[in-house]
Amino acid sequence: MHCALRLSAVGRRYGIRGPWVLRGVDLAVAPGTLIRIEGANGTGKSTLLRLLARLDAPTEGRVTGRPRTAYVPERFPAALPFTPLGYLTHLGTVHGLSRATARRTAGTWLERFGAGGYADTPMARLSKGSSQKVAVAQSLLGEPELLVLDEAWTGLDAAARAELERAVAERTAAGGAVVFVDHDPARLAGTPDATYTVLDGGLKPRTDGGSSPAGPLTLIVARGPAGGALPPDAARTGATALETAPGGYRLTVPASHSDILLRALLTARPPWHVVRVTPPPDRTPAPDDLAPPPEPGSRP
C-alpha cells in the first residue's frame, strides 16, 4: 500500500528570531493524487516542497507519513564525479536493484528523456538542459510513492517536457502522489486534483481546484461491462467521463495522458473495448463524436 503524507500546523523559519517563511500549514497528500503549488517568487514554495520531501524539518508542527520519496530541484548539481549512466546505475543499486537491472533501468530512463546519446559523458560537461534530464530520470528510477518536482521542467526541451508529463501520469495512475511547482500556468492543466497557493506564509486552496480543462485534449469512446465503473488506473489519469449508455463512456483526457488512459482500459480485467480515439481537434467535436458507442455487432 502506498503511504500518504500529512503536514499539520507546520511552520518554518530560518534562525531563532528569523521571520516565518511558512506558518500554520496543513496539507494532506493522498496516494494517487496530483497537487499543484502556486505562488509568487519568494513566498516559500520551495521551502514547502523541501518539507514535503523531508529534506528540511519544520520549526513547528508535524510531518507524518514516510512514503518513498524522490525530489527534483530547479537546479540540479551537475558537477558530480559520474557519467549519467554511472550515476543512475549507482542510485539503482541504492534502491535495491541488482547492478545489471539498475544499469538497464537507467539506460531506459535516459533514452526516454532523450539523454541516451551522452550516457557516458562526464556530468560536469553537460549543459543545464542535459543535466536536468538526468535529474528527472534519477527521480523516477525507484518508482517513488511521492514525487516532488520544483520547477523540474525548466531547461528541458519540448520532447523531454512532454515525457515528464507522461511520467507524472504514470506515477499517479500507479497510485503514487505527485506535488509540483511550475512557472507555466498551462503545465498539466486540467489534471491536478487540487491546487494551492502559498500566500502570506500560509497555504490557500484554490476554490476552482485548478483543474479546469486546458490545452489539447484527446477524445476516447470506450465500452466496458454494463454498469461497471471505470478502472481505477483510468480514473486517475485526469480524464473526464460521460456515461452515454450502460457501460459506454465518452472520455476526454489531456493529450499527454492519452496513452496512459488507453493502457489502463486495455489492461483492465475484463478489458475494455476502445471504440474510437480522436486526437486533439482543431474544432469543436462533431455531433457524432458525442454519440453513444455502437452496440456490439452493429455497423458504423
UniProtKB/TrEMBL annotation:
Keywords from the UniProt entry: ATP-binding, Nucleotide-binding, Transport
UniProt keyword annotation of NADP present: no
Transmembrane residue ranges: none
Alphabetized InterPro entries for the sequence: AAA+_ATPase, ABC_transporter-like_ATP-bd, ABC_Transporter_VariousFunc, P-loop_NTPase
Chain residue ranges for the region called Disordered: 276-300
Source species, domain of life: Bacteria
Bias (Pro residues): 278-300
Gene3D superfamilies: P-loop containing nucleotide triphosphate hydrolases (3.40.50.300)
Ranges of residues in domain ABC transporter: 5-225
The UniProt record lists the keyword Transport: yes
MF GO annotations: ATP binding; ATP hydrolysis activity
PANTHER family: ABC TRANSPORTER ATP-BINDING PROTEIN ALBC-RELATED
Official protein name in the record: ABC transporter
Organism in which the protein naturally occurs: Streptomyces monashensis
